Amino acid sequence: MIGINHNHITATNNLAQVYPNPVSKGYSLKIQLRADADHAEFHVPDLLGESVFSRPTAFSPGVSILTGNLAPGTYLLQLVLHNMVELRKVIVR
């Protein structure tokens, strides 16, 4: 996992727990934000950079992403919280 904070690459910021990973197509990928998160943005581009999922969330500790419309493969989940960005590799089987 790579975290970016104020234009610096750092170790993961642990902005959220992402599970299950890998996830089976048709099941929900769950994102549980850390306790101090009052809002966040989630983006899932495919490997060509096309957005397959994007969603802001406010005052919600968790989000589910339905994977039924995602082709099996590897995706990078981008989590944005405050001034931090964290990338997570997500595998859809």
Can you give keywords for this protein?
Immunoglobulin-like; mainly beta; 9 strands; single chain
Short description, anyone?
The chain has one domain: Immunoglobulin-like (Sandwich). It has strands at residues 2-5, 8-10, 16-19, 28-33, 39-45, 51-58, 62-66, 73-81, 84-92.
Secondary-structure blueprint:
Elements: E1 2-5, E2 8-10, E3 16-19, E4 28-33, E5 39-45, E6 51-58, E7 62-66, E8 73-81, E9 84-92
Antiparallel strand pairs: 1-2, 1-9, 3-4, 4-7, 5-6, 5-8, 8-9
Task: Explain what this protein looks like in three dimensions.
- The protein is mainly β.
- The protein has strands spanning 2-5, 8-10, 16-19, 28-33, 39-45, 51-58, 62-66, 73-81, 84-92.
- The protein has a single domain (2-92), classed as Immunoglobulin-like.
- The chain contains no helices and nine strands.
- The strands form two sheets. A six-stranded antiparallel beta sheet has the order 2-1-9-8-5-6, with no helix packed on it. The chain has a three-stranded antiparallel beta sheet with strand order 3-4-7, with no helix packed on it.
- It is globular and about 30 Å long.
- It starts with a strand and ends with a strand.
- Residues 1-11 have low confidence and may be disordered.
